[in-house]
Write a structure and sequence with these properties.
It is built from 10 helices and 8 strands. It is an alpha/beta fold and about 250 residues long. β6 (about 105-110), α4 and β7 form a beta-alpha-beta unit. It starts with a strand and ends with a helix. The model has no long low-confidence stretch (mean pLDDT about 85).
Length: about 250
């Protein structure tokens, strides 16, 4: 699968992407079909969106493309102290423009993806036809969640052995999904993290969690620039994604 190179004076980013086209690139997209951009959930990458790509209701009717965020999956970047959700939004805009994609519909899952696509829509509204936001986070991090991330960061990045890492992974699964009895899901997630983001690659996790913990609230002026249709899907299973949190965005 291909990637988009986004070099600059003091930074380097390679954004990995997957598509549902015959040859795995945007060159074989059907120009008669609308485009849907999918943004993966927290701590995962585009490989976890295969069920959406296999869904005939999407794959047969739309050109689908999913990007790995710069510190996730197969994307690569230099560590940057300036990395925040606005940078992720700029990455998306640059990749879309580099690939000559038309204005698209966006489906974003969870915290980083939702915050990034909201900023993309506020700054480059011409690129976005509609938004589907799944599990909208609060505008800024809740205090208890802030402490939870800090604790998970220590457990994940500095695990002294495999058992400690798997314990940290099980805590992350419970935090993300609200489930602690889905053994298959837990095993699949922990196996993925052991391969992609072990303690030896802690810099990627630290940079990602830094975005979450230090994000700022969108201003009313920025929210007013979001004119496209917005559909919000909020789950009930985790206390981190309670429905009232999404109502804050609706009221704005």
């Amino acid at each position: 699968m291909p990637s988009v190179q986004l070099p600059s004076h003091d930074d380097y980013v390679s954004i990995w992407y997957i598509t549902n086209s015959a040859y795995g690139n945007v060159g074989s997209f059907d120009p008669e079909k609308p485009t849907v951009v999918l943004l993966h959930p927290l701590f995962l990458d585009s490989s976890w969106l295969t069920k959406h790509f296999d869904d005939p209701r999407l794959s047969s009717e739309y050109n689908l493309i999913a990007f790995d965020q710069r510190t996730s999956g197969r994307s690569r970047c230099r560590p940057s102290a300036f990395h925040d959700c606005y940078v992720d939004a700029a990455d998306l805009a640059s990749a879309i423009q580099a690939l000559f994609l038309p204005p698209a519909h966006f489906i974003a899952f969870e915290s980083v993806s939702v915050n990034s696509v909201l900023r993309l829509t506020a700054l480059w509204p011409e690129l976005v036809l509609s938004l589907t936001l799944c599990n909208v986070p609060p505008p800024t991090e809740l205090k208890w969640v802030f402490h939870a991330y800090d604790e998970l960061l220590q457990l994940w990045c500095y695990a002294p052995d495999l058992d400690s890492f798997e314990h940290a992974g099980s805590e992350v699964v419970t935090f993300m999904t609200g489930e602690n009895d889905n053994v298959d899901l837990q095993d699949n997630l922990i196996a993925y993290w052991e391969k992609i983001t072990p303690p030896a690659k802690r810099l990627r996790i630290v940079e990602l969690i830094n975005i979450l913990m230090n994000r700022t609230k969108l201003s009313k002026k920025e929210l007013a620039r979001i004119k496209c249709p917005v559909f919000i899907i909020q789950v009930r299973f985790t206390i981190y994604t309670l429905p009232p949190l999404s109502l804050c965005l609706c009221e704005e």
